[in-house]
């Protein structure tokens, strides 16, 4: 079920999906085919993170070059990490499969606590 479904919305935060075009690992960006061959550096895709009782969804804004929408089932999440650098607040979400997503988002500790609370309630 996607963010527009009937799941109760627990939290909604502005966020950027961070796409590292030079990465060779199992990022959600690679899984969705968002990497641009020959491009270097990191690109932010603006959108929102939406937490429901069953999943953490990302919805991209309509003005982006690409508009991915995807969700991480809470039961599949193995780790939530605050990987902030300098002033950039960043959250890394990793799944059992090894696929991960990295997001620039304010309030990372509170977001991690909310996700953990929802996971505990499953």
Tell me the CATH topology.
PH-domain like
State which percent range the strand residues make up.
Answer: 35-45%
CATH class value:
Mainly Beta
* CATH architecture descriptor: Roll
Query: Number of DSSP helices?
Result: 2
Count of all domains: 1
Shape: globular
The chain-level structural class is: mainly beta
Strand order, largest beta sheet:
4-3-2-1-7-6-5
Q: What is the terminal separation in angstroms?
A: 16 Å
Binned, the helix content reads 10-25%
Q: Can you describe what's shown?
A:
This protein has about 120 residues and is mainly beta. The chain contains two helices and seven strands. Strand 3 and strand 4 form a beta hairpin. The mean pLDDT is about 90.
Topology:
Layout: E1 11-20, H1 28-31, E2 42-51, E3 55-60, E4 69-73, E5 77-82, E6 90-95, E7 100-104, H2 108-120
Antiparallel strand pairs: 1-2, 1-7, 2-3, 3-4, 5-6, 6-7
Keywords:
about 120 residues; 2 helices; PH-domain like; 7-stranded antiparallel β-sheet; mainly beta; about 15% helix
């Amino acid at each position: 079920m996607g963010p527009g479904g009937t799941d109760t919305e627990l939290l909604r935060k502005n966020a950027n999906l961070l796409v590292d075009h030079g990465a060779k690992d199992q990022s959600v960006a690679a899984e969705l085919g968002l990497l641009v061959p020959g491009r270097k550096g990191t690109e932010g895709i603006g959108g929102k993170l939406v937490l429901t009782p069953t999943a953490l969804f990302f919805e991209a804004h309509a003005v982006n070059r690409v508009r991915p929408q995807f969700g991480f089932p809470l039961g599949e999440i193995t780790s939530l990490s605050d990987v902030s650098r300098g002033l950039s607040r960043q959250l890394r979400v990793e799944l059992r499969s090894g696929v991960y997503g990295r997001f620039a988002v304010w309030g990372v500790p509170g977001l991690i606590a909310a996700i953990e609370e929802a996971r505990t309630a499953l």
